[in-house]
Amino acid sequence: MKKIGVLTSGGDAPGMNAAVRAVVRKAIYHELEVYGVYNGYEGLMEGNIKKMELGSVGDIIQRGGTVLYSARSEEFKTDEGQQKAIEQMKKIGLEGLIVIGGDGSFRGAAKLTEKGFPCIGVPGTIDNDIPGTDYTIGFDTALNTIVDAVDKIRDTATSHERTYVIEVMGRDAGDLALWAGLANGAESVIIPEKQESFESVVAKLERGQERGKKHSIIILAEGVGNGVEYGKKIEEETKMETRVTVLGHIQRGGSPSGYDRVLASRLGAKAVDLLMEGVGGRMVGVQNNLVVDHDIIEILNTKHKVNMNMYELSNQLSI
Ligand code: F6P
């Protein structure tokens, strides 16, 4: 293999730049030519592809977002779209592609591999919802953003003796909410995988009030529903003054944590190794601190599981 491409796709995540840097540097280290595809699969179909040099990824390891930009593409889901992309890659002689993104992006990578163009998936999403890896690139940074925001909310919640419902991202997965709940000592964590009954959340708030607690924090994963409505219901039921904060896209931005930079560097480099071995249709990940790879189709057919022991622990520590 002499020429490979790299793209970022779907929702961006802090650490994607560190992964792009690792791919480019590792490829050049092995004397491959490496091409950056701009705007994800949209750019791939349009041929928005440029050669990357060592210096083109200098000074990006610490930057949030993605220098290759990202997009969600409907056209690429069609056979014609995928064919168009393959033709563009063949035009410049690319022989393999590294796709940094989440499960939607991996579906595209699996389709290209099926059509004879080898792709490797690198899990980059704040949601941590990809099986086959303990962590996805961006999760740690997003978690720390949430932790910092909730600490600040706690200050004002205490001053005003209020209850706060804080809605966090995660799509259908509860990982961000659960980890943030544990890290912030939230009274309740409400996740799609295991919904605590409304009655039990209310009972816990009332017990806290009887003990003289000055404030309460409820972390709600967006996959459960609307935080504003949940907050209204809580206020109506408990008569406690309640406010809602939807953290939104600040969770996707910011300089990647040290952990995410290292993870991205390890996974980006491994993806290059696999292409060099002539392997396609794999996803790289980290399990028990070892870099691993899995069949991408198997990963797409496996359901992500949240760590229920951590959920139990969160409940035990917030009685
Ligand atoms: O997958 C990352 C994510 O931030 C999810 O947590 C969220 O549900 C979604 O993307 C938001 O997507 P968009 O930026 O397209 O609104």
From TrEMBL:
Pathway named in the protein's UniProt entry: Carbohydrate degradation; glycolysis; D-glyceraldehyde 3-phosphate and glycerone phosphate from D-glucose: step 3/4
SUPFAM superfamilies with a match to the protein in the record: Phosphofructokinase
GO MF term (any one): 6-phosphofructokinase activity
Sorted UniProt keywords: Allosteric enzyme, ATP-binding, Cytoplasm, Glycolysis, Kinase, Magnesium, Metal-binding, Nucleotide-binding, Transferase
Amino acids binding substrate: 125-127, 162, 169-171, 222, 243, 249-252
Amino-acid positions noted as binding ADP in the UniProt annotation, renumbered to this chain: 21-25, 154, 185-187, 211, 213-215
Cofactors: Mg(2+)
Domain Phosphofructokinase: 3-275
Regulation: Allosterically activated by ADP and other diphosphonucleosides, and allosterically inhibited by phosphoenolpyruvate.
GO-annotated biological processes: canonical glycolysis; fructose 1,6-bisphosphate metabolic process; fructose 6-phosphate metabolic process
Annotated catalysed reactions: beta-D-fructose 6-phosphate + ATP = beta-D-fructose 1,6-bisphosphate + ADP + H(+)
Active site positions: 127 (proton acceptor)
Subcellular location: Cytoplasm
Name of this protein: ATP-dependent 6-phosphofructokinase
